[in-house]
Amino acid sequence: MKQKKTILTSVVATVLLTVILAQFVSCEKYVLPELTISQDTIIFKYTVDSVALDIHSNVIWEIETPNISLINPWVRAMPPWADGDKTVIFKTQLNEGPERQTQARVFSETIERHLLLIQQAAPQPQQDNL
Question: What would you report as the CA-atom Rg of the chain, rounded to the nearest whole angstrom?
């Protein structure tokens, strides 16, 4: 009888220990989010222009240009969001006026980067001297 109690106690202790250890072992791993951009300033020519920006990330991110109006969207990002690494193409329209610029925001839920977008001014017409 004593031997049965000893065996039963050992089995219960082993099961209890296994349950306790299983609480500390997890299949899920926490990965720190990453979001980097290949440059922080892009300068476009005054003509129709496009420039590539490499984004390295392990999370879903988005590009926002809050100072660009819907009436005059002089610069666009394609694609405006993605999940992971991606090359974004920024395209501009013809600039017939002064230099223009905006601050774009590249962000995820936890990380934010800023990108300065500048488009050169249109050349001034030369005036003839009489």
Answer: 29
Strands lying side by side in the sheet with 60-64 = 41-44, 112-119, 100-107, 60-64, 81-83
∠31-34-37 over CA atoms, to 5°?
Answer: 165
Regarding pTM above 0.85, the answer is no
Which run of H or of E encompasses 17? helix 2-24
Q: What tokens appear for 35 in the block?
A: 């979001």
76 DSSP β-pair partners = 91
Say how far apart CA 97 and CA 127 lie, in whole Å: 17
Q: How far apart are the first and last CA of the chain?
A: 123
Tokens of 67: 């100072």
Model confidence pLDDT, tens digit, residues 24-50: 666 667 789 999 999 999 999 999 999
Tokens 């296994």 belong to residue: 18
